Amino acid sequence: MTQNGRHNSPVAHGFPHLDTVRKAITALFRRLSYEGILAYGASLAPAEAAFADAEDLYLGAHRVASAVVRALRLPDARMVVAFRAMTEAASVELTAGPEYFVEVNERFRTHRRDLAAALAHEAAHVLLHRLDLAFPTTAENEILTDTAAAYLGAGWLLLDAYREDALTHQKLGYLTPEEFGYVLAKRGRLLGEDLSSWFTSPQAYEAYVRGRALADRDHRLPPLAAAPWAERRRYAHGRRTGAAAPGAAYRFEGRGGALRVDFPCPVCAQRLRLPAGRGRLTARCGLCRTELDVDT
Questions:
Q1: ∠262-264-270 over CA atoms, to 5°?
Q2: Contact 247, 214 (CB under 8 A)
Q3: What is the pLDDT of residue 38?
Q4: pTM
């Protein structure tokens, strides 16, 4: 896990990893199933992640680690936490278990409010290791790990650890703050969860709002019936020509009466295919079971 500390270059923003994030969400649904995702319905509560200065360092670290493990549904995993000088925020030794050894940056001895965030990323590594779920490259795997932590209820802490002012730039994890907000909004929409009041960092809350706006926009893209008029007009033109506008999330396949539109499910990002030109209909995603109001 990387971190930006004092006097480092400003934190990256925006959505540079969005394609990989969406692939990660699809992969989680495929590996865990719809019912499996629903089992992660309760996020790690702020009280469970809190770590007071007066609490014993190692007992408190073990308590917080145990709470993160429970949140990610790793009941038979024990995380042993050690502190040492290191460049990264934390690292985990992936073994067969049941004990996993996590080393965290010694700065967390005193900056305890962010310890749970660092542990959330490492616990997500353990979960993915046990699920045998991985992407081809190290960079993609780190995006997958952050996405899993956030989508499964512990990674909101990684966003809350983001703080930026004139002297300090801190961000834990590999997603941008806005990408964390996007994933958390996706989770919240599926599970009926709103984390708005949980953020202690004003910058984290602002990033969450920006990410939520993009997540909401996914539900208003053609051929979804909620798409605005201008988007519907571009879609209709593309359907007539058989070619989607540059940058469109949908694409057309075939021609004439066999023309089909291929587009991502706004919930799990799995690609769906429907006959084009059939008007208003209800489609059901076979992966996340979402019913979609569509106008093809």
A1: 105
A2: no
A3: 97
A4: 0.93
